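pasting for the record
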Amino acid sequence: MRQTTFTLLLFVASLSINASTFITATDPGFAYVGRISWETKPGSAVWTYPGVQIHAVFNGTSASMDTNADCGYFMVEIDDLAARKVLVGKGQTVTELAKGLENGEHRLTLTYLIEGLYKKPTFNGLYLDDGCQLGKRPSLPTRKIEFIGNSITCGYGIEGSAKDKRFLFSQQNFYQTYAACTARALNAQCQVCARSGIGIYRNYGGKIPDEIMPNIYPHTFYATKGEQWDFSLFQPDVVCVNLGCNDTSLGKYDKSKLSEAFKSFTITLRGCYPHAKIVYIIGAIPTSKRLTDIQEAQDAAIADAASRGDNEVYRMDFTPDDGSLGMGAVGHPSMQRHALMADELTAFLRTLMGWE
């Protein structure tokens, strides 16, 4: 009896999939934002950074996505419904995004919420109701922001609390970060190159491996070799760089090396983006000599750029984190702190960019 029931369930599941229309990831109706590879698995979108977005307009009453198994968390937005977090777990390749919608046209946005370095999230396409298709490729905001950073930009521990002493993907949520909130507030596309523990001249704990930000930045994935990113695909209006926390972690850092790294990285960014404004931000970390040293290293890079005739490099300071808004997991900013950071950065960019 159990075998018969199990076989029937498999048949029903198979029948359900076969009765659906599959839309491949390469369909022109999809719009993507983020560092995506089309070479790794031809016909599918593959990435490693948080914040990658997939936009589409679909017809019908339901939608499910096809991905690799155990690729982590996504935020699902459909029409004006509340955003919903979904997990693609072990052994799971088809994930329901919506069902029971009014039959018609619906706007879909998927946002990848975690760091995908070890999960290599792969989007293969969507299952829609039988006979349904994607509508016209949705238009995206004309404003563009790139965020370069570390665990704070990734949303490390944002859904946790100070009592949580270890990293969990379930507590990471890029959608709630200062970066994502700022982009939504300014109606801007948001591209991300960020990794927990990364620095501009050395990584967390004083380690100086190959995988510092200047070395991985030219690549599509978090890597120091392999596929090169095509910077012409996303030319931001403004680049926000939140680095320095890990370089100065655990003390005994070299401030001169920090300054030189910011100077060199500014030259790299200007080569990639001739017309973008570059904004160095820091935090949120407590008031300390460490904070002052990072700010002074950034100021040195700004002065160096000005000496070369580049007057479009700036610094913006978040309110130092004094713990008054609580703490996330493993000493990271809370969701409330990220909200404040977003308000501060949004106001700064409105003025700097002349964005209403």
